[in-house]
Structures are given as structure tokens and as C-alpha cells.
Amino acid sequence: MRVGKKKQPTYRVVAADSRSPRDGRFIEIVGIYDPRPDPSAIRIDNDKAVGWLRQGAQPTESVRKLLEISGAWEEFSGKAPVAAAPAPAKAASKSTKAKAEG
């Protein structure tokens, strides 16, 4: 949900019905995202976010990225950060290719 003055956006991360408009009715405020400062300010209540995800809430791509940054997504999925997981798998596949060729 976009709030703030003209040319000075601030976004509320909210739990809302998918049929409601972007700035319309929402159920609960989960956090706030302010893109203007450097680095961007992200304040998300991880307990509320994980609670909504466990109830079946589907985050948009941009909200999912914010949840990954705040750590709520890892807490929900129970996995290690996304950047660390694929690296060992790629190294293992390269070594098996080398063994197959040699």
C-alpha cells in the first residue's frame, strides 16, 4: 500500500484480500518499507508476517524480496538463505562432469 506525499513514497506491507485495490482496504499492517534513504529502511514484524504466511497468504514478488531481507521468509520456509544453498550444488555438478569427461 503506497502512502506519503507526491514524489516521496513510503509503502506499508499489509495483509489484504487479493480482490481489494492496492491502496484500498487491508486486514493488518505487517511492516513498512521506505525506499528513499540510502540504504532503504525496511521494518517488518517477522512474527506477524510468518503468521500470515502460515495461514496461506501469498506475497507479491516485491514483498517476498522484502521478507527475504528481513529474515521472515527463511523463518517461514525453514531453509538457509537462498544465496548460500545453490553454490554447493553447482560445484558438485561440475566435479561430476569432469569425472565423466576424464
Largest sheet: 4 strands, antiparallel
**Beta-strand residue fraction:** 15-25%
How is the largest sheet built, in terms of strand order? Answer: 1-2-3-4
Q: Flag low-confidence runs.
A: 82-91
Mean pLDDT: 79
Helical/strand content category: alpha+beta
- N-to-C series of helices and strands: EEEEHHHH
Strand segment tally: 4
Shape verdict: globular
Radius of gyration: 19 Å
Helix content: 40-55%
* Oligomerization category of the chains in this entry: single chain
The tally of helices reads 4
Word description of this protein:
- The protein has 102 residues and is an alpha+beta fold.
- Helices cover 40% and strands 23% of the residues.
- It is built from four helices and four strands; from the N terminus they run ββββαααα.
- A four-stranded antiparallel sheet has the order 1-2-3-4.
- It is globular, with a radius of gyration of 19 Å.
- The termini are far apart.
- Residues 82-91 have low confidence and may be disordered.
Task: Using brief descriptors, characterize the structure shown.
single chain, 102 residues, alpha+beta, globular, 4-stranded antiparallel beta sheet, 4 strands
Describe the structure concisely for a colleague.
The protein is α+β, with helices and mostly antiparallel strands and 102 residues long. It contains four helices and four strands, in the order ββββαααα.
Topology (elements, then pairings):
Blueprint: E1 2-5, E2 8-15, E3 28-34, E4 41-44, H1 46-54, H2 61-70, H3 72-77, H4 86-101
Antiparallel strand pairs: 1-2, 2-3, 3-4
